[in-house]
Amino acid sequence: MSQFPVALPSKESHFMTLSQEGPLFILHLHHKDNRFNTEFCLSILKALQIVEDYFLASEEIGDMALVTVGNDKIYSNGLDLMHALSYTPFMDVYLTLLKRLVTFCIPTVAALNGHAFAGGCMLAFAHDYRVMRSDRGYLCMNEVDLPSPLHPGMAGILRHKTTPKTYRDMVLQGHRFTAQQALDQEIVDIICPGDQVLDQAKQLALKWAPKAKSGIVYKQLKDEMYTDIVRLLCIPFHRLAPKM
């Protein structure tokens, strides 16, 4: 069993910290602007595995939930594009992360302390609940402006968790949603000033942490709820790459 806090991927290369506060696990992402490369994704996957191992090892499953939070004014600015373009297997690692999180075995809350763009926005949507900073930051899928296509699994997450109008504005316009707009469109659950985001996320996590007592059933319900998303996320990225 891991001793908390855990530096990931290692103490020498410290991108994020996994800590435990009673029934809550807090994953603090603090590597520059939290752009996703392979090592960053694998570090989050390792954190999820540590939490799941703790969950499975519990003799009697009690309240449990996971909160993720970024650093300073940024939750995550998305993919490290140079890495994504130069390392072919990367996108499949990123898709595995989304699949793992969207069907995770306990309740999950994203504490959006600042900007969540593109891949960072997708990470937020892969959580069960979202708390967003009201005084700074946007939720945005800006692929149309890069330009870059959306993998079917990523599009599936957005389709499932937004209305048709919000989905249109997010994908075809690259609209930058303020916290109030995100709340009005029901893509976040709570908005609050930046200095309250983590505390509000913890309170929301504590509210739903008792649902983890259902054990493996909680994940089974997610597997069924998101069966189409999981199927789409399993499509290898290289199959979608345009033929030159």
Largest sheet report: 7 strands, mixed
Overall shape: globular
How do the SSEs run, as a string of H and E?
Answer: EEEHEEHHEEHEEHHHEHHH
Taking pLDDT < 50 over at least 5 consecutive residues as the criterion, the unreliable ranges are none
End-to-end separation = 49 Å
- In total, the number of strands is 10
Question: If you had to describe this structure to a student in words, what would you say it looks like?
Answer:
- The mean pLDDT is 95.
- Helices cover 41% and strands 18% of the residues.
- Strand 3, helix 1 and strand 4 (65-69) form a beta-alpha-beta unit.
- The chain is an alpha/beta fold and 244 residues long.
- Helix 1 packs parallel to helix 3 (90-102) and helix 5 runs antiparallel to helix 10 (227-233).
- The longest helix has 20 residues, at 38-57.
- The radius of gyration is 17 Å and the shape is globular.
- The strands form 2 sheets. A 7-stranded mixed sheet has the order 1-2-3-4-6-8-10, sandwiched between helices. It has a 3-stranded parallel sheet with strand order 5-7-9.
- It is built from 10 helices and 10 strands.
- It catalyses: a (3Z)-enoyl-CoA = a 4-saturated (2E)-enoyl-CoA; a (3E)-enoyl-CoA = a 4-saturated (2E)-enoyl-CoA.
- InterPro entries: ClpP/crotonase-like_dom_sf (IPR029045), Enoyl-CoA_hydra/iso (IPR001753).
- Pfam families: ECH_1 (PF00378).
- Keywords: Lipid metabolism.
- One of its GO terms (cellular component) is peroxisome.
